[in-house]
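$ run holo --ligand "protoporphyrin IX containing FE" --emit tokens
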Amino acid sequence: MNLTLKVWRQSTDSDGRFETYTAENVSAEASFLEMLDVVNDKLEGQGEEPIVFDHDCREGICGSCGFLVDGVAHGPETGTTICQTHMRKFNDGDSLTIEPWRASAFPVIKDLMVDRTAFDRIIESGGYVSVRTGAAPDAHTMPVNKHDADDAFNAATCIGCGACVAACPNAAAMLFTSAKVSHLGMLPQGQVERYERVSNMVDTMEEAGFGACSNHGECEAVCPKGVSLNYIARMNRDLAVAKLKGV
Amino acid sequence: MSWFKNLYASSIGKKLVMAITGLIIFGFAVGHMSGNLLIFLGPDVFNGYAAALQGNPPLLWGTRLVLLASFPLHIFSAIQLKRLNAAARPSDYGEWKPQASTRSSRTMIWGGMVLLGFIVYHLLHFTLRVTQPGLEDLTYNLDGAMVHDAHRMVLMGFAPTAMGIFHVVLYVSAMVALCLHIYHGVWSAMQSLGLNHPKYNVLRKQVAAAFAFVLLIGFSAGPLLTIAGVTKAAGEAFTKQSTQQVDSDATVRR
Ligand code: HEM
Ligand code: SF4
Ligand code: FES
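-- output --
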């Protein structure tokens, strides 16, 4: 199949603009990133700069990839990262717009690649538990009820891709932060720092320049891991308690 | 109060204030709408109800003070959040397709502005009575007591004249804005307050939608049915029926 791509090109110091490219003889079996690889080979052959995009595992687990395709973060396939989206999802002759995440907390490094170290700072500020390490304890030494275990696990599936921020009209990082707050805060091991954690992580999130939640639900809709808005409500509750306790 | 300052410093705290004040105003709106519906029971009932409110200063001023505190807090936090959000997304996408948000959720600030403008006009119109000539000194003889004729005021406000048509259009459009604001707002407030449970999450949206719809119909019924002449006719029919009832009760007793 043949496609027309309208791709955002931006170097560190310039303002950026859309450039149009053609992708020819694209296999329906190719992944979206493989399609871009082919376009890049051609660009390099012509002595042009390849399109820069972040990627690593290409199997939907590392959280490196991500950009908007036709106005949707990670493209049209729901519950799927862009690296796991295949070209059979598109039609011959399609014209696709490809844009980086846009948020003041995620400055563009180049083209489609953005700087997500703000997420690392959020994790550093509370993504840990103070427990004695050593050999792994037996799984049944600390009982965890099934609901909590499942909820904590679902929160922990967040891969930190940043699509939630990209899709949010306010560029808020509530879904990401709430997932990180909850996956430890719902387990017995995470109780020691429960309120400090939510307080510090929310403070760090806001210092980084992410927006506020308007409960639009765009984040949940594009999240490749289906992280639920319920975690945001839970984080709101925990933060109110934390601030009441003066943490 | 330092806990409050710390909480409010975060956007989540601002949302809590927004949610609590929004729900307070919403609660008032539901009460106000229910009271308004008494207009269809004629001047005796409606003016009696209005006089009872006026004759209860603790209730009247309690409500006014709570609302007077809630509105500025609601609007102030709304503007602060709006500015924060604009700063977080300085450049728009070339193309962005909504996946889950609604027209209602994306127009909260504009709908809010419309409501604010409407509320100011509404107070000038029916509370201070300075925008429409003839509403200043309407009195009604309620079993010998002279009270304000709120019933007549509404009939005049939505009379089939140019001004009445203007008022009907204004009031009903504002209620459409209210409906949209509540459709997202009531659900959103529950989420902001952390009131969620997997079992009831769908119900939250349905409850918000139901309230939005009831408020739209309940508030719009007054202006629309008044200009159509129904309010007056219904009031007369009800008054006649209840006087007959009183008469027949009296006959039986005699
Ligand atoms: C009849 C009057 C009003 C009622 C009943 C009302 C009710 C509500 C409720 C219940 C919410 C949800 C709070 C939350 O999301 O947690 C809300 C949100 C909001 N209200 Fe109002 N409100 C009213 C008037 C206004 C006015 C006058 C403005 C000001 C311009 C305004 C601006 C907003 C905005 C911007 C939001 C959403 C903010 C966000 O989520 O980012 N509202 N309102
Ligand atoms: S919550 Fe979902 S969209 Fe947001 S960073 Fe985690 S995986 Fe990505
Ligand atoms: S490249 Fe690892 S998730 Fe897409």
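-- notes --
The pocket of FE2/S2 (inorganic) cluster (ligand 3) is lined by residues A 55-58, 60-65, 81, 83 (CB under 6 Å).
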